[in-house]
Design brief:
- It is built from 17 helices and three strands.
- The chain is mostly helical.
- A three-stranded antiparallel β-sheet has the order 1-2-3.
- The longest helix is centred in the N-terminal third of the chain and has 20 residues.
């Protein structure tokens, strides 16, 4: 297939799919580089094998170093060309970026086997990835100390592994190791960590101040952001929905007659029924009727540019919320950002409005009301009322 022809067809297809003109411009740059690459090698016909050669050319000519931008851009570009070469149509579907895997072949095998096992017992992909990542970290440690086989792991290795870990990672590591050792049926290693408890820091959760909430409200009402982004932020501020659940919400999850939003929670699998407040309902209705593009997908929130499909992952929500924060002039000041910040704030508002803890737990989708107790720390006024008076305490010092 002629390289000039297939590249021209791609640019035309991008425009027909209504890609943003700046995106088309970027791909035109990739096409120019690909053509120059082809001329240097005397190639005029496209094949997947030659495409892979270009996709693998990810070292910047200017710096001589690996370029992550070239890695992702050229990989997607060649996937477009390959799809047309094999099927006669360009596949514009969004695919998640690949995940790192161990380079050691023995380690790679057990990593993949463990990943398959996790997905057979956990319906939640995030849970599977959590434990999978801990296996990856353990295998990387084994590689660093030249242990080729998990059968060679001894309790002393595990203790040193934990000692070298950062304090804020130890809790996750211990949780991951317990699952790994059960899977490996290494009772000796499981027993070696059974008495180890990582430090758990209790802290007051950060929330937005009243003035910051007013600044966000002004941005939402100003028309500076899209109706989609506005609806997402309003849902986070009002009902505290997690990003992983928000991107999976479907049009059928909204019961407009009974004014509820019901869905199976991604983290726990529990069913959650949220109130469809006027603020949330109006924001959703405006987005769906006035801005949401026509698409075959039934997720409520979809990409603004073609292909009009669901968000690839919940990092999109973080980007949206961070953008609103910037427009509102809100500095992080060491606080978390994104949907989780809005979730904390929603729970804090309910606590200040004397909503029962059991009700807050139900709205947030917590398995137990005990998980919701942490939000009590966000009510500064109520905490002050809990302080015992110092009157009557003797100041006399006894030797």
């Amino acid at each position: 297939m002629d390289i000039e022809k297939i590249c021209a067809l791609l640019i035309d297809a991008l425009r027909r799919e209504c890609y943003n003109e700046s995106t088309v411009f970027n791909y035109q740059g990739v096409v120019r580089r690909f053509k120059a690459f082809s001329v240097e090698r005397g190639e005029t016909e496209y094949t997947p094998a030659f495409g892979k050669t270009y996709a693998d050319d990810v070292v910047s000519a200017k710096t001589g170093k690996f370029s992550s931008n070239r890695f992702y851009t050229q990989d997607r570009f060649i996937r477009f060309l390959d799809s047309y070469y094999l099927t006669g149509t360009f596949d514009f579907s969004v695919k998640p970026r690949g995940r790192v895997t161990p380079e050691n072949q023995g380690h790679k095998a057990i990593y993949q086997e463990y990943g398959s096992f996790l997905r057979s017992v956990h319906s939640n992909e995030n849970t599977a990835r959590f434990y999978e990542y801990e296996m990856y970290c353990l295998l990387q440690y084994m590689e660093s100390v030249q242990l080729a086989d998990v059968a060679e792991l001894m309790p002393g290795n595990i203790v040193r592994y934990l000692q070298n870990a950062k304090i804020n990672r130890q809790r996750a590591i211990l949780c991951g190791l317990r699952g790994i050792f059960k899977y490996l049926r290494r009772d000796d290693l499981f027993a070696s960590i059974s008495g180890i408890h990582a430090q758990r820091i209790k802290r007051i959760l950060p929330v937005l101040t009243d003035s910051e909430q007013q600044s966000i409200k002004k941005v939402l009402e100003s028309g500076e952001i899209s109706l989609r982004d506005s609806a997402i932020v309003i849902m986070g501020l009002t009902v505290g929905i997690r990003a992983c659940d928000l991107i999976r919400l479907r049009l059928t999850d909204v019961d407009w007659n009974n004014e509820t939003i019901s869905f199976s929670q991604s983290k726990t699998g529990n069913m959650v029924c949220l109130p469809l407040t006027p603020t949330v309902g109006n924001a959703l209705a405006r987005y769906i009727t006035e801005e949401r593009p026509a698409t075959k997908h039934d997720t409520i929130f979809v990409r603004q540019y073609t292909p009009f499909g669901p968000f690839v992952d919940h990092s999109a929500c973080h980007s949206i919320v961070s953008g609103v924060f910037r427009k509102a002039g809100i500095c992080k000041d060491g606080r978390i950002a994104g949907m989780h910040m809005l979730r904390h704030n929603a729970a804090s508002s309910m606590v200040k409005n004397a909503v029962p803890i059991e009700t807050i737990a139900a709205i947030l989708g917590h398995s137990s009301p005990d998980s919701t107790d942490i939000y009590i720390t966000t009510d500064e006024q109520k905490l002050k009322e809990c302080v015992l008076p110092m009157l009557g305490i003797s100041t006399e010092v006894h030797p």
